[in-house]
TrEMBL record:
Its EC number is 2.6.1.44. It comes from Zophobas morio. Belongs to the class-V pyridoxal-phosphate-dependent aminotransferase family. This is Alanine--glyoxylate aminotransferase. InterPro entries: Aminotrans_V_dom, PyrdxlP-dep_Trfase, PyrdxlP-dep_Trfase_major, PyrdxlP-dep_Trfase_small, SP_NH2Trfase/AEP_transaminase. It is an enzyme of class 2 (transferase).
Length: 391
């Protein structure tokens, strides 16, 4: 290449002494949430070779801690470098073949997305829907599995767009009675509300890193029961390469007698951040963490009553403790209200989506942001916003 070579396009970027940065907010929506300095430090470390002993050590540590957070001894427990949606898609593609029957219990946007995925892959889907704020009974789900002769039941544990928590205990044995596996989207509920993968005999779980786990988005946390692993190995057709979880399981040293082999380049920085976030949970303890989220959610509900705001989910027993959907008073434009709160208090709150679209804002107390003093600060901001808009 000669020194006189010319380019077709010039860069719009100009070198500057100004250091790149962006404004920081208190993230009080449905996720992501703010991360601790400890997790930030892990992100800032130098990259590692994805097949180095150092990388394998981080993977092994993260896997062991993840088994604790999932409350499982499943050997097939791993981390996949994709979003929560990618994790749900991977579950469908690794456990089902085209034409297989699946029941999807929809409680909001995330169930609708799984339905969309299932239809794209030409699965035989029975979608279930409930009125906003309601959850499914064991009997309703059993009848659906039985009538549809389903090979998989897919449910969302904590539904951040509707503010509900679906009860799971007792559901897997019902599924197994009919030869059906139970898959759970725990992307937002992990480390917020109790989840016992082994005790409740759940077959597949997908969880997110950017909610109560307290790491950045971009990874999903997965575990599969021996039943699910057996089903996966019997699949007629392999999933797309990137979503094929068996090679990823080999990379994470999940299977006895199979030497680690490279699947795709993993981000050492992201994995280290997730490792540190999981370590923080292990150090606090799951039960104290569950109790902390529950007590702060209930404190928030009490403070909402004091300023005249109400929860979108009327029945307290149906409410998710991580994200509360708060009704927007009539006469207030939701987006104007949220912009005001963001500009004055530097608090980012998520607008409604799916069942709460144009009805309720979604306020999350997740991970390190689940603290009583933060509840009080958010209430102060909401009260100020109500006064500003004449309510």
């Amino acid at each position: 290449m000669s020194a006189n070579e010319t380019l077709d396009y010039e860069s719009v970027h100009k070198k500057s002494a100004k250091r790149f940065t962006h404004k920081e907010y208190l993230l009080m929506g449905a996720g992501p949430t703010n991360i601790t300095d400890r997790v930030l430090k892990a992100l800032s470390m130098q990259c590692l070779n994805p097949i180095s002993a150092d990388m394998y050590e981080i993977m092994d540590q993260a896997k062991a801690m993840l088994q604790y957070v999932f409350q499982t001894k499943n050997r097939f427990t791993l981390i996949h470098q994709t979003s929560g949606n990618g994790g749900n898609e991977a579950i469908l593609l690794n456990l089902l073949n085209r034409g297989d029957k699946v029941v999807i219990a929809i409680g909001g946007t995330w169930g609708e997305k799984v339905l969309d995925m299932a239809q794209r892959y030409e699965l035989d889907v029975l979608p279930l829907r409930k009125p906003p704020g309601e959850v499914y009974s064991l009997k309703e789900l059993e009848e659906a599995v039985k009538s549809h002769k389903a090979r998989l039941l897919f449910v969302t544990h904590g539904e951040s767009t509707g503010g509900t928590l679906q009860q799971l205990e007792g559901l897997a044995p019902v599924c197994h009675k009919y030869g059906c596996l139970l898959a759970v989207d725990a992307v937002v509920s992990i480390a917020v509300d109790p989840l016992f993968v082994d005790r409740w005999e759940i077959d597949a779980v997908n969880a997110g890193t950017q909610k109560a786990i307290g790491a950045p988005p971009g990874m999903c946390l997965l575990t599969f029961s021996p039943r699910a692993e057996k089903r996966m190995r019997e699949q007629k057709k392999r999933p797309p390469y990137y979503l094929d979880l068996l090679p990823q399981g080999v990379y994470f040293d999940c299977f006895d007698g199979e030497s680690r082999t490279y699947h795709y380049t993993f981000s050492a920085n992201m994995l280290s951040a997730v490792r540190e976030a999981l370590a923080q949970i292990c150090e606090e303890g799951l039960i104290p963490m569950w109790q902390r989220h529950k007590s702060n959610a209930e404190y928030f509900w009490k403070r909402l009553d004091e300023i005249g705001l109400t929860s979108f989910v009327e029945k307290r027993e149906n409410r998710f403790h991580g994200v509360t959907c708060v009704n927007v008073p009539q006469g207030i434009d939701q987006m104007d209200f949220l912009r005001y709160v963001k500009q004055k208090f530097e608090i980012e709150i998520t607008p409604g989506h799916g069942p709460t679209l144009n009805k309720a804002m979604r306020i999350g107390f997740l991970g390190d942001n689940s603290r009583p003093e933060i509840v009080d600060f958010v209430i102060e901001a909401l009260k100020d916003g109500l006064q500003h808009f004449g309510k």
